[in-house]
Write a structure and sequence with these properties.
alpha+beta; FAD/NAD(P)-binding domain; Elongation Factor Tu (Ef-tu), domain 3; six-stranded mixed beta sheet; six-stranded antiparallel beta sheet; 17 strands; binds flavin-adenine dinucleotide
Length: about 425
């Protein structure tokens, strides 16, 4: 039986490659060149739509560790990236043309994979993997809505930065929930009027990312970028995300002039989300301006804020850990549409969906990689119920058992675990 894969992007090719590696058959449906997305420019499979960097290649960086895990489990994206890399310092940078050509040729040469140049407008009978990415065509988007419900498909991500808990100054920041100082739901960074003025002026002057022509994002009032709110007047933030009412500063015993609230992203308090700080400031400016907030002077950013055009599903509600739709086990999702963010993260979800779909047709129970690995941690993140699900890139904060003091051990364990996991899957399937 052939597994149908809709979308020949990073995730789609990974899924097909893994299926074929394990002796299965796949057919990729790719709509380009007849139809294209607003960001793709070529007809090649696995096109990099923006940067030609696949981020850090250092093992001590979560992006580097994810890549090494992918390499160990025979990722075609990693194989192509190594084969077509160009100098880029600590980052894995590729010649984008050669990179996509390498993958396109490999996929076309593979006798177990067929490629159909066709836009899919109806979800076909399964097993099928939907890997159509952040710019899924309109007709298919409609069909996805019909199976997920409109409330469970998002078209934009409005992301607030996530800060590493270890980098927050707890001499300044304190736990309290509005009108309740006995609760540790929020971490508060209070500002005096002088500190607020300094922050406010820096925010107004900071460099922003200019939207691409197709990214005319209709901002919703409840979700405006922090700098847009600020541009409406000095008082706006004080009545919005920085309002101090109901918060008593532990040190002064008074209500501060302004307050930035951070919400836990995990039970251990390794990661904190800056509430209401969705932004289009450049990454560099986010570091400069947000570090002006007392308590965040040395903040390490695990995820930067952003606002993008992005089609993604409410994975925690819809998918199980095999990346299978809970309501229809013949439909799998892969890539950025599952709510991960980034080239490598999307590719990794392609590997998983491919192996999972193959296990499904063989009647084998699929066991996802453990959350102590980067790939397993991404699956855990996107399939765990949470308030306001937002896309996530890999970072050590989501890796189970991560501890900075035991970093080398954690890395070693992740690599061994992913290799063992893959060998086991290979054994079961063959
Ligand atoms: C504008 C933009 C810039 C980005 N820049 C970066 C970056 O610099 N670095 C980074 O790490 N991440 C970036 N991302 C995020 C993300 O990592 C990439 O979008 C990545 O390509 C996602 O991989 P994917 O396989 O999920 O989707 P894609 O690589 O987009 O693949 C999806 C494929 O599905 C096809 N398709 C869509 N609908 C249909 C249909 N109905 N029938 C058949 N085929 C269809 C598309 O043509 C496409 O080839 C960016 C995203 C966007 C939108």
């Amino acid at each position: 039986m052939e597994i149908k894969i809709i979308g020949g992007g990073l995730a789609g090719v990974e899924a097909a490659h893994q299926i074929a590696r394990m002796g299965g058959r796949a057919v990729i449906y790719e709509m380009r060149p007849h139809n294209t997305t607003p960001a793709h420019k070529t007809s090649m499979l696995s096109e990099l739509v923006c940067s030609n960097s696949l981020k850090s290649k250092e093992l001590t960086n979560a992006h580097g560790l994810l890549k090494e895990e992918m390499r160990l489990i025979n990722s075609i994206v990693m194989e192509a990236a190594r084969a077509t890399s160009i100098p880029g310092g600590k980052a894995l940078v590729v010649d984008r043309e050669k990179f996509s050509r390498y993958i396109t040729d490999k996929i076309f040469e593979n006798p177990l994979i067929k490629v159909m140049r066709e836009e899919i407008k109806e979800i076909p009978a399964g097993p099928v993997i939907i890997a159509t990415g952040p710019l899924t065509s309109e007709a298919l988007t409609e069909k996805i809505i019909s199976i997920t419900g409109s409330k469970n498909l998002y078209f934009y991500d409005a992301i607030s930065p996530i800060i590493d808990g270890d980098s927050i100054d707890f001499n300044h920041a304190f736990y309290a929930t509005r009108y309740r100082d006995d609760s540790s739901d929020y971490l508060n960074c209070p500002l005096t009027e002088e500190e607020y003025d300094r922050f406010y002026n820096a925010l107004l002057e900071a460099d922003k990312v200019s939207p691409r022509p197709f990214e005319g994002i209709p901002y919703f009032e409840g979700c405006l970028p922090i700098e847009v709110m600020a541009s409406r007047g000095k008082q706006t933030l004080l009545y919005g995300p920085m309002k101090p009412v109901g918060i008593i500063d532990r040190r002064t015993k008074k209500e501060p002039f302004a307050v930035v609230q951070l919400r836990r992203e995990d039970t251990e308090g390794k990661m904190f989300n800056m509430v209401g700080f969705q932004t289009k400031l450049t990454y560099k400016e986010q570091e400069r301006v947000f570090r002006l907030i007392p308590g965040l002077k040395n903040a390490r950013f695990l995820r930067y804020g952003s606002i993008h055009r992005n089609t993604y599903i409410n994975a925690p509600k819809l998918l199980n850990k095999s990346l299978q739709l809970k309501s229809n086990k013949e439909i799998f999702f892969a890539g950025q549409i599952t709510g991960v963010e980034g080239y490598c993260e999307s590719s990794a979800m392609g590997i998983i969906a491919g192996l999972s779909a193959l296990c499904f047709i063989k009647g084998i129970e699929f066991i996802p990689p453990p959350p102590e690995t980067c790939i397993g941690a991404l699956i855990e993140y996107i399939t765990t119920e949470r308030k306001d699900f937002q896309p996530m890139n890999i970072n050590f904060g989501i890796l189970k058992g991560y501890n900075r003091r035991r970093k080398n051990k954690v890395i070693e364990n992740a690599l061994k675990t992913i290799e063992d996991w893959y060998n086991k899957i290979e054994d079961i399937i063959s």
